[in-house]
Structure formats: C-alpha cells, structure tokens
C-alpha cells in the first residue's frame, strides 16, 4: 500500500503544477486570439477554450482551497512568462497559424497526460471526491485536442490557398 502522506504530497504538487500549466495555456492562447484575422473557426475555438481554461483554474483553486493549499505564485508566474515568450516567438514566423496549431495540439495532449496522472494521484491520496472536477478539466482538454486534430487539415489547406493567392496567410 502506498504511503498516504506521499500520495497526498504528489497530489498537491500536481494540483499546483496543473494550476501553473493552465495559466501558461492562457498566456499562449490569448495572444494568438488577439492576432487571428483569417481563421475565424480557430479564433472561435480559442475563445471558447480560454473561457474553459478560466473555469479549469477556478476548479483547481476550489480543490486547493479544500485542501487548505494555494497555487504556487512563482510557478504560475514563470509558466505564464514562458507561455508569453512562446506565443511571441511564433508571432514572427511566416507560417504562424501552422506553428501555433502544432504547438497547441502538443500542449493539449500534455494537459491530457497531466490530468490523467493527477486523477490517479487523487485516487491514491484518498481525494476521490475531487476527481469529478478533474475529469471535467480532462474532458475539456480532450475536446480541444480532438478539435485541433480534426481541423488541422482544413487550417493547413486554408493557409496554403491564401499563400498561393498571394494573400496574407500567417494569421
């Protein structure tokens, strides 16, 4: 049997990491949304997922508060900064929409893995009552990853068509 203290420590660390990860996601998506001009379906989905991500952060705050814990301000700040830098780096690319789409797909799958592990640590630590909130976050990440996967061909086709027509294609 696992040491409940160890499982609890792993769970709390995972919650704080997930909180920082979601703040990083916001710092990546918001600049993308602000720059998008020609990919309205992507913009609509990013806007929706930004709102979902804000809800995910609220759910994580609720779980942390129930454990008499709080998010790590340092982790939140550092990952938000790195997300902003990633978004800024892609903004200089002539194929920004493609780079963002690929990076977003990878990040969504990272979030899926993080929540899958976090749900396991919740179960091991005896925090099963928090699992439905974590599963809600996981389902939203899965939905976003699936949307990116399913729409990547159309985004790529639109990018190539705009480029071939001599139109601005990056955002």
From TrEMBL:
This is Uncharacterized protein. It holds the Pfam family DUF892. InterPro entries: DUF892_YciF-like (IPR010287), Ferritin-like (IPR012347), Ferritin-like_SF (IPR009078), YciF (IPR047114). PANTHER family: PROTEIN YCIF.
């Amino acid at each position: 049997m696992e040491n409940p203290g160890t499982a609890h420590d792993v769970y709390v660390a995972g919650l704080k990491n997930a909180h920082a990860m979601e703040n990083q996601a916001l710092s990546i998506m918001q600049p993308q949304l602000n720059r998008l001009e020609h990919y309205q379906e992507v913009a609509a989905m990013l806007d929706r997922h930004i709102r979902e991500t804000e809800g995910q952060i609220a759910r994580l705050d609720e779980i942390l508060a129930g454990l008499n814990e709080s998010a790590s301000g340092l982790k939140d700040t550092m990952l938000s900064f790195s997300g902003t830098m990633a978004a800024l780096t892609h903004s200089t690319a002539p194929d920004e929409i493609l780079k963002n789409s690929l990076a977003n797909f990878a990040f969504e799958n990272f979030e899926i893995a993080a929540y899958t592990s976090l749900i396991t640590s919740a179960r091991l630590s005896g925090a099963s009552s928090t699992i439905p909130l974590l599963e809600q976050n996981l389902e939203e990440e899965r939905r976003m990853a699936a949307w990116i996967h399913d729409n990547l061909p159309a985004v790529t086709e639109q990018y190539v068509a705009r480029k071939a027509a001599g139109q601005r294609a990056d955002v």
